[in-house]
Amino acid sequence: MIEEIQRQSEALAPRFDGYRRRALVIGLIGIAATVFGYLTDHQQFFQSYLLAFIYWVCLPLGCLGILMIHHLAGGRWGFAIRRMLEAGASTMPVMFVLGLPIIAGMHELFAWTHTDVVAHDEVLTHKLPYLNSTFFIIRYVAYFVIWTIMGTLLTRWSVQQDQMTDTWPTRYMQRLSGPGLVLFAALGTFAGTDWMMSLEPHWFSTIFCAIYILGMGLMAWAFMVLVGVPLSKHEPLNVLLTNERLRDLGTMMMGFVMLWAYTSFSQLLIIWSGNLPEEITWYYTRLHGGWLYLGYALIGFHFAVPMLLLVSSRIKARLKVLVSVAVGLMFMRLVDLYWITAPAFRDHDGAMTQAVALAPHWLDLAAPIGVGGLWVFFFFGQLKKRPLVPSNDPRFDHDALAAEAQEHGHD
How far apart (Å, rounded) are the C-alpha atoms in residues 156 and 137? Predict the structure, then answer.
């Protein structure tokens, strides 16, 4: 069985190589355009690159979080996408390197890196022990070291379980995933604070980073659909990724859409009802001018439309609709992060009091395309390294799944 899975997985290597070549070409074109943008407009380059980084880092982090949920909760859906989740989590070092321009551009992005601004701002002076350049860099390195260690251990133990009948690797994966999820949530909270909330250091929200973490999961589910649907037509995943299992992925997407909407509305409701100047100004900027219409677009296409399509099992069973929803959610996640970050970049005199108009720059698209192309290139490189179906896991019954696939069929 294991040898057959290995053979079938290797047969897909040319397809993965094709994906990698296309992703690399697209990525290099995007990076070349982004470098040109750096040469012509330093300030806009760093703003757009931050958007690209906080967007694409969501995928390896979302994969890591869902992988740990799978090891704790089990479920056949997890075995169907485990190798894809492991491949995504294994790209953490890639995102560490791709995030280094954010470190280089700290002074262009964050007001609290300006000593003259901090010296005349009581709030920033109070937050100086946390919001300072040295500690920011230390935290950045620490985040990726811990995330990389967790992803590496889970992937290594999963491969070791393929090679033996002893179940200690599975027990290790379960033992790590419990405290690992707690640590994952804590690090995600600090990272969201560092990379996004500190753009406007006078503002704060206890729900903000939870919204960002849920966005990571939503992006990961959508990406699993985009990768899983084509692979479901080929061995060995055609037995695992049945239509029923793909509908499960759609249900997971719907759940995270609901959670994102619930937490986002809760944040708005609490801040708006409190009506405190230091809190309400964040929404005041984003609910006026063109930003208001972008907010309406998020309500419609990040929540209402996906919810209506995914709530129906009949509609969700249509793979073209499922893929379209996943593509739409991936795009709307970028729109959401743009809506959050772009208004934070106002005048450059340090005071940051003059609101900006909605005026997307071409770099806001070029930078995500460049970073994303490189990430997808490395993702498929990781995916082709291991058999696509896990073996010898005591919770995984190959025979039962094969019988189920034969009974229900696979379109």
Answer: 28
